[in-house]
């Protein structure tokens, strides 16, 4: 920027518009200062521009941002009117600032002027989005399986130290919340059954309802939902934060596969712990039901225990455990996939964590429904 003369405040910014064969030539001179007199230059803006505008410096003594604002105004007006404007005759600093202004466009509200799509369009948008998520989940699951095969061949970057730490987080550290929720669910099942069975004097069958319900359905499903909100969200937040800090990019640069190094230990740990937590959840649910049966319905502990064991079969427990393995895969894939696909901001990490929990719960319910229908069709 040129040095400002001592009388810059009292100086005048001048613009002369001269028609030429090529269009209109805007000749800038004088001192362009925010505190100076720009009346003449402002009046010149009202003149009609030609199809081509040429801006030239014919004696600019000093300038500041006021000149850039003036040139920017001319530039925008020419752009809106689809006219040509030539800035090659202006000072180099002005040209650089104009180039910088064009490189970073002004922020515009993305919702401004955009109407709300119709309900049919909204259904289509959500359907396409759901199909896209299913496709991404299937591809992610395939990559995970390939990494597992590579680990069995002892060719992967799998770290057993990380695996056992995650096992500790997914298993023993989850016992308190699993204990609380499972016990309360067992009590709720007992209360629901007691309202009806008490009318027929069949309180003893409360044990059957709680035992079969916890073994076949509620034990695995409630454990899956708990782990989705606890462990799946933690996986998404952890990997999302690594994405923000560019740690995952650093691993790729160093030749480490994030799938083998980060995702596989978490997935295997959760899949291993889910059946054990499910069996524990079944037991705690039955204990919760026994509290209602013994202290509110007058059953003896021996009666309740014998009826529970009589109603249970090996397949009832096995079917719930098999479901829990699928639920473990669902929670691990949802949490890790959302974490790796997270954006690079704090808000994106929060969105990835929320999406991980929501997707996991939806997939859990869908998987549970499909497996239950399959059991029924097979007569199991």
Summarize, please.
The chain is an alpha/beta fold.
Number of DSSP helical runs: 12
Regions with pLDDT < 50 over 5+ consecutive residues? 1-9
Tell me the Rg in angstroms.
Answer: 35 Å
Largest beta-sheet characterization: 4 strands, mixed
Q: Structural class of the helix and strand makeup?
A: alpha/beta
Task: Write up what this structure looks like.
The protein is 68% helix and 9% strand. The protein is of the alpha/beta class and 380 residues long. The protein folds into 2 domains: 8-103, Transcription Regulator spoIIAA (2-Layer Sandwich), CATH 3.30.750.24; 132-378, no CATH class. α2 links the parallel β3 and β4. α9 (258-295) packs across α10.
Topology overview:
Blueprint: E1 13-20, E2 23-32, H1 39-44, E3 52-63, H2 65-80, E4 84-89, H3 92-103, H4 119-152, H5 160-170, H6 175-197, H7 206-244, H8 247-253, H9 258-295, H10 301-311, H11 314-340, H12 346-378
Parallel strand pairs: 2-3, 3-4
Antiparallel strand pairs: 1-2
Helix pairs in contact: 4-9, 5-9, 6-7, 6-9, 7-9, 7-10, 7-11, 7-12, 9-10, 9-11, 11-12
Kindly list the characteristics that best describe this protein.
alpha/beta; 2 domains; four-stranded mixed sheet; 12 helices; 4 strands; disordered N terminus
């Amino acid at each position: 920027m040129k040095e400002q003369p001592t009388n810059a405040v009292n100086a005048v910014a001048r613009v002369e518009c001269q028609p030429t064969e090529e269009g209109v030539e805007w000749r800038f001179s004088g001192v362009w200062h925010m505190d100076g007199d720009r009346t003449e230059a402002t009046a010149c803006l009202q003149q009609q521009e030609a199809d081509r505008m040429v801006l030239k410096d014919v004696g600019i003594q000093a300038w500041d941002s006021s000149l850039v604002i003036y040139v920017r105004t001319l530039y925008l007006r020419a752009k809106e009117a689809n006219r040509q404007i030539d800035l090659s005759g202006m000072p180099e600093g002005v040209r650089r600032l104009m180039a910088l202004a064009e490189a970073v466009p002004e922020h515009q509200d993305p919702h401004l002027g955009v109407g709300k799509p119709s309900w049919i369009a909204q259904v289509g948008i959500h359907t396409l989005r759901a199909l896209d998520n299913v496709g991404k989940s299937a591809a992610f699951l395939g990559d995970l399986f390939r990494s597992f095969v590579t680990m069995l061949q002892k060719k992967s970057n799998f770290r057993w130290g990380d695996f056992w730490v995650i096992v500790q987080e997914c298993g023993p550290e989850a016992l308190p919340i699993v204990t609380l929720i499972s016990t309360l669910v067992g009590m709720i099942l007992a209360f629901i059954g007691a309202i009806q069975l008490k009318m027929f004097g069949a309180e003893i069958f409360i044990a059957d309802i709680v035992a079969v319900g916890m073994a076949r359905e509620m034990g695995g499903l409630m454990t899956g939902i708990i782990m989705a909100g606890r462990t799946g969200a933690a996986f998404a937040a952890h990997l999302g934060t690594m994405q923000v800090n560019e740690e995952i990019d650093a691993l790729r640069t160093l030749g480490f596969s994030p799938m083998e190094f980060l995702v596989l230990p978490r997935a295997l740990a959760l899949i291993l712990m889910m059946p054990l937590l499910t069996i524990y959840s079944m037991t705690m649910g039955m204990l919760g039901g026994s509290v209602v049966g013994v202290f509110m319905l007058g059953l003896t502990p021996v009666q309740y225990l014998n009826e529970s064991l009589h109603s249970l079969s090996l397949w009832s427990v096995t079917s719930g455990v098999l479901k829990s393995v699928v639920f473990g895969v669902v929670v691990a894939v949802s949490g890790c996939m959302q974490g790796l696909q997270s954006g690079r901001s704090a808000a994106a990490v929060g969105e990835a964590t929320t999406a991980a929990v929501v997707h996991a719960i939806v997939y859990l319910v869908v998987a549970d429904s499909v497996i239950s229908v399959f059991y029924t069709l097979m007569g199991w």
